[in-house]
Amino acid sequence: DIQMTQSPSTLSASVGDRVTITCRASQSINNWLAWYQQKPGKAPKLLIYKASSLESGVPSRFSGSGSGTEFTLTISSLQPDDCATYYCQQYNNYPRTFGQGTKLEIK
Amino acid sequence: QVQLQESGPGLVKPSETLSLTCTVSGGSINNYYWHWIRQPPGKGLEWIGYIYYSGSTSYNPSLMSRVTMSVDTSKNQFSLKLSSVTAADTAVYYCARADGFGQPIDYWGQGTLVTVSS
To answer: Fewer CB within 10 Å: N-end or C-end of chain A?
Structure first.
């Protein structure tokens, strides 16, 4: 199985800050990476697919980059509504695997 | 817009079989890949497997010996069975959709909590 490792595990930032979350794969997944946002008690929501493609309806402050084994999710200007846990998931191979999550808190 | 809704018992006894159904509305079950993912309380996401509308499946090797998925296209439903459950199987179970074999999961159900306890 491909292991996905996110960092940091928790992150505290202020409204307006630029925030970056990293996801590393244990082997190359090309650019077959998705980012999800999950709020408490809710299902995950797809933000980014194919490493850098923005899902329809997702605010443009979210962006993704990377290929191979290292990827980043960036929020250009943090908003209060962005308080959530973020997960990366590779879909290059089965079984599909997720990172352990990054909990983003607003200061 | 497609909607997914999980249904099934919220409490299952140890050693018994967990059974869940996902009903798809607002779209056809045909030509899509239908996934199950679970999340133990306070923990991360674990992919369980998928079933294609035609019935072909792929399961997580960690659960393969206990998982069975099925699909009923006439009812726009697909199902999950997990046998010989233990407390470690207590989780929120999500059904979800992917547009293709190598596509990300784009639609999720709201999730249903299944507790394994006597």
So the answer is: C
Q: What is the DSSP code (8-state) at residue A76?
A: S
Residue B52's pLDDT is 97
Q: Is A46 in Cβ contact with B44 (below 8 Å)?
A: no
Chain A CB contacts of B104 under 8 Å are 34, 46, 49-50, 89, 91
Say if CB B20 and CB B4 are below 8 A apart. Answer: no
| B96 strand-pairing partners | B35, B108
Residue with tokens 């089965």, as numbered in its chain: A94
pLDDT at A86: 98
Parallel, antiparallel or unpaired: strands B11-12 and B112-116: parallel
Q: How far is A97 from B79, CA to CA, in rounded Å? A: 21
- Our CA angle for B75, B80, B23, nearest 5°, is 30
Residues of A within 8 A of B44 (CB-CB) are: 87, 98-101
Residue pLDDT, tens place only, B7-28: 999 999 999 999 999 999 999 9
Q: How many CB atoms lie within 10 A of CB A51?
A: 22
